[in-house]
Each structure stands twice: as structure tokens, then as C-alpha cells.
Design goal:
Structural class: alpha+beta
Strand content: 15-25%
Strand order of the largest sheet: 4-1-8-7-9
Distance between the termini: 117 Å
Shape: elongated
Number of helices: 5
Number of strands: 15
Helix content: 25-40%
Order of helices and strands: EEEEEEHEEEHHHHEEEEEE
Length: 360
């Protein structure tokens, strides 16, 4: 079987639950279809069902040549003496018909008011012919329609709103021209004013929401910045404390290694050392018959030899000098070796601070 030109067949059965756009009497609905809403001449329409109100019936079939168009556009209108009014509209994706069994879809599709609210349904049977990739399995038996997919095409909605505004303007002009329709013109003017007021209120509400969102964002930004600064301060304080602890562990300043008990014990030991030295000297003096000259002479010679050895170390400095482990100093006639690095203080003499100095 030769493949012909791709086409789409549309059968409009009817509609239900439509909104009533007629001010006086019942509305006279008809529906029109197109695959290109930008071309007014491309639309095909049903007959007008007079006084059908919210439930018109048409049962008419139309055919459209397809050239890759993705959607079928639907517009349900109310016939007026001036400009026809828009009842509802929708865009139906053709792809769902192509992939249906037998490329046939009998469905109920939602339609929408120009403002975008759901306003009823339309009952259609759609069949695709000679479309590449279409479902060739047998079509489902005719029965109750199923729910189909429809949506609002934003550009199509702009066209529909323009038609609605033209209809309102035409009604207002006709009412103003005819004195007998003055009441109707007043009602229409109020309707336009109310619509404009609603649109203005919606715009203001959107602006207030945007301003509130901006304010919330700024508040969160300030809170985050304050938390970041607090965190940095805490980090800085923690680093300072760690630095002080490390200095104490390495003996810089020496305070963390200085033991007051050792200080007290050192003072006691120093006093004992001096007392023992004095007792030894007195005993030696008595042993030599009280001759101070021999004792002095002997001590003098001994001290002379000791002084020569002590010249190898410098005299201990109590005024903030830094000593490293292994440094040697002279203090109170003896030599001492530094045990751990520190800066000297007046009350950390080698004879007292045993954690810092050891007699050589």
C-alpha cells in the first residue's frame, strides 16, 4: 500500500461544562481548529449551535495536512453580532494520537479560559494517517472516551486574550452607540474595570511578594555573614591558644615547666649546700690547727684552678636571655648545663630551677 500525505482527521462531537460568556440570553457556541494559529485563514470551524449554552453538540469532521506540526489548536467561540467572544481554548499534542493504537484517539480534553483557568471539556475523535512512526496496531473498539492531554500554549494564549479584548471593546462601542443598550454598556464597562482592577491587584501582589523575597534573602545574607565572622574569630582564638600551649611545651617563657615545689625545694637545697660547705671549711681549718693562712692559701690555689675551668662558660644572665639545651653558664661559683630552652628570669636561677638547669 502506497503511503499518502500525512494528515490528521478531527471529529468534534461536543463540549460540556463550558463557562457562560453571554450577558443576556444563552450563548451560541461553535469550535474552530488549526495547526497554525498564527494564520487566521488556516482555521476550520463547525456550525454555530444556537442557544446551546454550556453543552453544545456539533458532530462534524475536518481534515488537516500535516507537515511536522506538533499541536492542534482549539478555540471555542460564542457568536455575537459584533465580535465573537472567546469561551475557551486549548492546545492538543498530536504525538499522543500518532502513538495511540491504530493512531486513533477518542478522548475528552480540558479547555481553558483566556486567563488560564480550566473551563470545561471538549469531546474529540482524532486519527493520524500516513504519519512516520505511527502505531499500526489495531485501534481500540469504539466506546467511552478516555482522558486526553491538553495544555496552554503561551503564544496561543496571547492571541486568545487579544480576541477577548477586541470583543470587549466592540461590545462597549456598540453599547455606547445605541442608547437602548446603555445599561449593557455600563455593565460591560464595569466588567472591564473589574478585570483591570484584578490585574492591577495581581501585579501589586506579585511586586510585594518579590520585595518580601528580596528582604528575606538580605536577612539571610546578613545572618550568614555574622556567623562567618563569629566562626573566624573563634578559629583565631583557638589558634592563639594552641600557639601558647606549643610555646609552653617547648619551654618558650618556661612558665608551663616551672614547678613552684621545685623552686621551694631548690631554695632549701641551696641553703643546705652552703651550710655543708661552711661546715666543711671550718672542719678543715680545725684540722690544720686553726691556721687561716694555710687554709686560705690552699683554698686560693684550688679556686685559681677552678676559675680557669669556669672560664669556658659565661656568667648566667637573669634578664630575659634565651638559653638552649646544652648551653653552659657559671653561677655562684659552679657551672650549670641548660636542660630545656627558655628565657631567663631573676627567680629562675640555676641553683633554684632544677627543671631548667643541672650542675655540671
Amino acid at each position: 500500500m502506497m503511503q499518502g500525505q500525512p494528515t490528521l482527521t478531527v471529529t468534534a462531537h461536543g463540549a460540556q461544562n463550558l463557562q457562560d460568556v453571554e450577558t443576556i440570553g444563552k450563548q451560541d457556541p461553535y469550535v474552530r481548529f488549526s495547526t497554525d494559529f498564527t494564520n487566521p485563514k488556516a482555521f476550520q470551524k463547525t456550525f454555530v449551535h444556537k442557544d446551546a449554552g454550556k453543552t453544545p453538540t456539533w458532530n462534524q469532521t475536518f481534515s488537516f495536512v500535516l507537515a511536522g506540526e506538533p499541536e492542534l489548536f482549539v478555540e471555542i467561540m460564542d457568536e455575537e453580532t459584533t465580535a465573537d467572544a472567546v469561551i475557551a481554548f486549548a492546545a492538543i499534542p498530536i504525538n499522543q494520537i500518532v502513538h495511540a493504537p491504530g493512531a486513533t484517539f477518542h478522548g475528552i480534553f480540558d479547555v481553558y479560559s483566556p486567563s488560564g483557568k480550566t473551563q470545561g471539556e471538549i469531546n474529540l475523535t482524532l486519527v493520524a494517517h500516513n504519519v512516520p512512526g505511527q502505531n499500526t496496531s489495531p485501534a481500540q473498539p469504539a466506546g467511552q472516551p478516555v482522558k486526553g492531554t491538553s495544555h496552554i500554549n503561551v503564544e496561543h494564549q496571547k492571541r486568545v486574550k487579544s480576541l477577548a479584548n477586541k470583543e470587549k471593546a466592540a461590545d462597549a462601542g456598540s453599547a455606547a452607540f445605541g442608547g437602548l443598550l446603555a445599561v449593557g454598556a455600563g455593565l460591560l464597562a464595569n466588567k472591564l474595570a473589574n478585570d483591570n482592577k484584578k490585574e492591577e491587584e495581581a501585579k501589586k501582589e506579585a511586586e510585594r511578594a518579590a520585595a518580601a523575597e528580596r528582604e528575606r534573602f538580605e536577612n539571610e545574607k546578613h545572618q550568614f555573614e555574622a556567623q562567618r565572622q563569629q566562626f573566624e574569630q573563634q578559629q583565631h582564638q583557638s589558634q592563639q591558644q594552641q600557639h601558647i600551649q606549643v610555646q609552653g611545651q617547648h619551654g618558650y617563657g618556661g612558665q608551663s615547666h616551672f614547678n613552684p615545689q621545685e623552686h621551694h625545694q631548690g631554695g632549701h637545697d641551696e641553703g643546705k649546700h652552703k651550710k655543708d660547705k661552711k661546715d666543711k671549711k671550718e672542719k678543715k681549718s680545725k684540722h690544720h690547727g686553726g691556721s687561716g693562712s694555710d687554709s686560705d692559701s690552699s683554698d686560693s690555689g684550688s679556686d685559681s684552678d677552678s676559675d680557669k675551668k669556669k672560664k669556658k662558660g659565661k656568667k648566667w644572665d637573669a634578664h630575659g636571655r634565651h638559653y638552649s639545651p646544652g648551653d653552659k653558664v657559671k653561677y655562684d661559683g659552679d657551672k650549670y648545663v641548660c636542660l630545656q630552652g627558655h628565657n631567663s628570669q631573676s627567680d629562675w636561677a640555676p641553683t633554684v630551677a632544677h627543671s631548667l638547669w643541672r650542675r655540671d
